[in-house]
Each structure stands twice: as C-alpha cells, then as structure tokens.
Amino acid sequence: MDVNRVRQILSSSADIEVTYNGASVWIDGLHEDGQMATVHLRGPLEERTVIDIKELKEQ
C-alpha cells in the first residue's frame, strides 16, 4: 500500500478492510517517515505492531 492511500484510510469514516499477513487490522497511525505504520488486529486484542506500509493490503 502507498502512503497516500494509508492517509486516505486514516482520514475516512468508512470501515475499510485492511490486512497484514492475511489478518484483518486497524491502522492506528502513520509514522513521520511515511514508510512505517502502527497497526493492531481487529477484535479484542489491542497489541500494536509497527510495520512497513508496503506489507498492508486493502481488501
């Protein structure tokens, strides 16, 4: 995924499904470098992970 699409998803009120390694995730924020984002799995677990945005896929 590119940085512009990540920004669009973050600013949208729509529920846009995004996956990381096949798991559905919420994007919590984009880092200042524009290459990394903080995400967490959808559901009860709130564990956050920092990943390269290129590994995100929109469904």
From TrEMBL:
Coiled coil: none annotated. It is found in: Spore core. The keyword Chaperone does not apply. Keywords: Sporulation. GO terms for biological process: asexual sporulation; sporulation resulting in formation of a cellular spore. It comes from the Bacteria. Induction: Expressed only in the forespore compartment of sporulating cells. Its main location: other. GO terms for cellular component: endospore-forming forespore. Pfam families: SspH. HAMAP family: SspH (MF_00667). Belongs to the SspH family. This is Small, acid-soluble spore protein H. It comes from Neobacillus notoginsengisoli.
